[in-house]
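pasting ABC transporter substrate-binding protein for the record, 332 residues
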Amino acid sequence: MSKSLHHFLRLSVLLGLTLVMVIACHKLPAQKVLAPNGKLPTSECRVVKHDLGETCVPLNPKRVVVLGAELDGLVALGVKPFGTTAEMKPYLKPYLTQAEAEAIKYVGVKETGPSLEAVLSLKPDLILEVAWGNSLTYQHLSQVVPMVVVIPESDGQWKPAFLKFAEALGKEQEAKQVLTNYDARLAEFKARMGDRLNHVKISLVRIYPNGISFYLKTSFSGSILAEAGLKRPPAQDKAPRGQNQEQVNKELIHVLESDMMFVWTYGHTSDIARSAQVALKRLQSDPLWSTLEVVQRNQIYEVPSLYWFGNGPIAANLVVDDLFKYFLDQPA
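structre below
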């Protein structure tokens, strides 16, 4: 038997044993965990349709785990999940007490997604997941724990996930109010910008340790700029399905030309983040970079990747704060 096959069989056995233990040890009576058709009884739950089918979720879920998505949307709804695969970003901390933030358990495995064992150890009564493609987690866990899954085509589709999770949590009205307030801020921005919106093009650029990318209208920040009425350079003014950014060689750096450029670096580890910052400094001293008119006019602004590269209403509002700051000279 090959090592890979042996490893696969071993993992399958361990997963099976874990699922059996969770079903056996769950505090709720067995008939309340699963009906014969794999769903909770309708008298104690409500059906929520999602991208992988429909699920009967508890009327008032208490132990929520969110996978593959930022904490942003849940925190905006006043929900404190028990577990997540997302990092606790600093801009969320004002919405949580220190104890609440520390109580959220990390259930991820770096680069491979959630740890099923860690998820099940929290005994969740609802799992919310944003899946990029097929969800193996749903296949493994949906027969044990109610799951609602959203499969977006791009990072710019953050609103459908936010609204679907709100539906699963019974917080549709709260979510609609959050988006109404967000839309009102965008309307104010557009009104105050007036005709300037027709005469300014914005580049969104990310510096990697070994490369440069520009973000498209399908990206999170790109979708916000589009909603704000801001134009993009031709190379960035497109919305290909399933793609958020494109890499560019330094020799083609002219495609970044714009009236204003927002730049950020990012790294999943501190070493990568530092390397990206070093790459940005190196680029700023490159003669090719200096050929850009936006550079010569000093219209480049480094913005925090934590929310420009975010996903959810809190991050979106912080991006709008920056739009007011840089275009209308109005600090948040």
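The radius of gyration is 22 Å.
Confidence is low (pLDDT under 50) at residues 1-40.
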